Structures are given as structure tokens and as C-alpha cells.
Amino acid sequence: MELALGVGDPSAGAKASGVDWSTGERVARFREFVELVDLLLRQEVTTYRGQFYRCEDAEIVPLPVQQPRPPVTIAAHGPRMLRIAAEHADGWSSWGGYDVATEEDFYAVTAERSHRFDDLCVGADRDPASIRHSIVCFPPLTPWRSVEYFQDMVGRFREIGIDEFVLYWPQTWRPDPHEDAVFEEVTTAVMPRLRAAGRTA
Fold first, then answer.
1. Taking the model in full, what pTM does it have?
2. Which of 76, 120, 149, 199 could form a disulfide with 85, with the two C-beta atoms 3.0–4.6 Å apart?
3. What is the pLDDT of residue 11?
4. 49 — phi, psi (to 5°)?
5. Residue at which a domain ends, from 70, 90, 116
6. How confident is the model at residue 199 (pLDDT cuts 50, 70, 90)?
7. Taking residues 81-95, what's their average pLDDT?
8. Are residues 80 and 44 in the same domain?
């Protein structure tokens, strides 16, 4: 099992459910939440007294099979969230953003975040290479445009430091039956070759 955490998409309608926190409070709450979840998954009994979250002798029985706890992936873009991920995560996830209009912008913003994340890891006395760097291949990227496009996309992101790719099914973002054939070739031939190359590099 893997646990993925983030502050949530603002467009999901938090205000409609009565949540109207500032960005700063959302991040501060999230930091405490991550700290508390980490403790709860590592030990049978946890007492935590934060500004936003508290518990007294909270029990987790039985503890997770995975030790010291299941891996945690944290979605982060801004500097405060990247710092939380650098300090606590086993994996870091990024996805570009709704305001990323071009592919070149997507590569550039991902490179900037990746470099900042790696620096924050070093500052937290953690090896950046020990933390998975994941990217959600979201528009304007079109990974199923062609086999050549897919290989180029993966190569460019790997140079940035990305080592995991989250992909949508073909035709999720545009009606193009050609994407199904690209998907078939990539998953049966290209991905195994890329994985083998990664193991021998």
C-alpha cells in the first residue's frame, strides 16, 4: 500500500463544505496532518499536540504490515509544500498546473520545482535520489500522440530527475482513436525497454 497526500484541488469546492482557510493555514494544517499521520502509522500509541490537531493515546492496532510504515507520496508545487515533501515524503508528486499553457512551460516549471525540491532534501539531510520523483502527465502534454513523442517526453523528464510517470488512459483528453495504437505499442514494447535500461544504468 502507498499513501498519497496533498492539500487538495481548490476547484473541488472546499468552500461549499464550509472550509475557507487561507493558503497559509491550509499548508500549516497539512504539515501537522503529515506529522501526525507519520506518527500514527509508526507506533501503536500516539499523543500529539499541535496547533490544529491533537490526540491523546491514539491507538493503531494492528500496526501496518509495511515497516516502519507504508510509503507516503506528497503532492507539492510551492516552496512550503515542497519543504514538507522534502522532510517527510518517500515520493514527491507534481503535475504542472492549470496555468501551464505550453509543453515547454511544463518542462521548465517541472525542472525548477525538481531542482528546488532536491535542494530542500539536501537541506533536510536527505538524499534526493532516495525519494521518488513523480510527474502526472497532464495537458498540455500528449503522451499518446506517437511512440516517438512518448520516448522524447520520458527522456526529457528523466534528465530533469523524474523517475515515475503517472499517465491517463488514451483519449481521456481528446477523441483520437490513433492514441489506442500508440498506447498498445508503448506498453508492450517501449516501457519494458525503458525499465530494463533504467535497471542497467
1. 0.91
2. 76
3. 67
4. -130, 95
5. 70
6. low
7. 97
8. no
Looking up cell 498540455 gives: 140
Asked if the peptide bond before residue 140 counts as cis, ω within 30 degrees of 0, the response is yes
**pLDDT tens-digit map of 92-131:** 999 988 899 999 999 999 999 999 999 999 999 999 999 9
**Do 96 and 110 touch, CB atoms closer than 8 A?**
yes
Contacts by residues 182-189 (CB-CB < 8 Å, ≥ 24 positions apart): 182/144, 182/145, 182/146, 182/147, 182/150, 183/144, 185/147, 186/143, 186/144, 186/147, 186/150
Can you list the pairs that 92-97 forms with residues at least 24 positions away whose Cβ atoms lie under 8 Å?
92/117, 92/131, 92/132, 92/133, 92/134, 93/4, 93/6, 93/134, 93/135, 93/136, 93/166, 94/134, 94/135, 94/136, 95/135, 95/136, 95/138, 95/166, 96/135, 96/136, 96/138, 96/141
Q: Do 64 and 75 sit in the same domain of this protein?
A: no
Q: Is the bond leading into 177 cis (omega within 30 degrees of zero)? A: no
> Looking at this protein, which amino acid is placed at residue 73?
T
Q: Specify the number of domains making up the chain.
A: 2
Residues 58 and 137 in one domain: no
Q: What is the CATH number of the domain that holds 158?
A: 3.20.20.30
- Residue 52: domain span: 1-70
Q: Which helix (H) or strand (E) holds 135?
A: strand 132-136
